[in-house]
């Protein structure tokens, strides 16, 4: 089984691109806070690369911006390429299957206007953005009903 579920903040505005066959895609990175603090009392983050295709890529690039919170589900996908010096480089991405808006439109717009630092080991949010307590259910305010779409299996 190869399944990844993440909730994090985009580190940059996703840019919509197209393959030579005119298939839409976007690559972006999500900062996911770790559940513990480091020796300095700060919460480190992992920066996870994600790739989305077709309609999902178009929607994400249209409605998401740097700092917006996103919930996503996908699978790990590995690859490799030769860099300009001929060295083999290996990649690991999350290939997106599903995503959800976690914030309201107003909250997304507010978080987009905040300044986020994107250093590799110390993701610090603007103090105006509340810190997420991972012991609480981040989906508690979505109501009692849950809808699961299995169309992607067909």
What is this structure, in a nutshell?
This protein is mainly beta and 154 residues long. The protein is 12% helix and 40% strand.
Report how far apart the termini are. Answer: 18 Å
Largest sheet, in brief, is: 5 strands, mixed, barrel
Number of domains: 1
CATH class: Mainly Beta
Total strands: the figure is: 6
Structural class: mainly beta
The oligomeric state of the chains shown is single chain
Q: Which architecture per CATH?
A: Beta Barrel
Which strand order spans the largest sheet, edge to edge or round the barrel? 1-3-4-6-5
Low-confidence stretches: 115-135, 145-149
Instruction: Report mean pLDDT, rounded to a whole number.
Output: 79
What is the radius of gyration computed over CA atoms, rounded to a whole number of angstroms?
Answer: 17 Å
Our estimate of the beta-strand percent is 35-45%
Q: What is the CATH T-level topology?
A: OB fold (Dihydrolipoamide Acetyltransferase, E2P)
What features would you describe in this structure?
The protein has 154 residues and is mostly beta strands. It has a single domain, classed as OB fold (Dihydrolipoamide Acetyltransferase, E2P) (Beta Barrel), CATH 2.40.50. Helix content is 12%, strand content 40%. It has helices spanning 54-63, 105-113, and strands at 4-10, 17-18, 24-37, 43-53, 69-82, 88-101. It has a 5-stranded mixed β-barrel. β2 and β3 form a beta hairpin. The two termini are 18 Å apart. Residues 115-135 and 145-149 have low confidence and may be disordered.
